[in-house]
């Protein structure tokens, strides 16, 4: 009977995915991630409790799952519980990870002077272009256009 229930639940989720017109890659990811959660539980995902969700998130965090993988799995579970199974209250127990922001590399005054001195060609044209680009913080693609 559990197999039949799981099959009906999976079929309903597939139908919900089709109703929303999600692309094939997204469809597969949603189903794969809910299946991953069910294998963690060892039972159908509709029997999950808030404590199960907490344990799953803790396992992913301790297992070193990347921020993007973690968030995609949470999105899949939010879809399952919110849309397919109609248990919106379970969304409260799911947290997203934030990707740590990297600080940009800032050149020292000496490094900027060396860079400006290395500009080829006679005259100030290229040196001025590089100086303005660097001073304004432009990206290489912005300078080229």
UniProtKB/TrEMBL annotation:
GO terms for biological process: DNA integration; DNA recombination. It comes from the Bacteria. Residues 1-85 form the Core-binding (CB) domain. Keywords: DNA integration, DNA recombination, DNA-binding. SUPFAM superfamilies: DNA breaking-rejoining enzymes. Pfam families: Phage_int_SAM_4 (PF13495). Residues 102-145 form the Tyr recombinase domain. One of its GO terms (molecular function) is DNA binding. This is Phage integrase, N-terminal SAM-like domain.
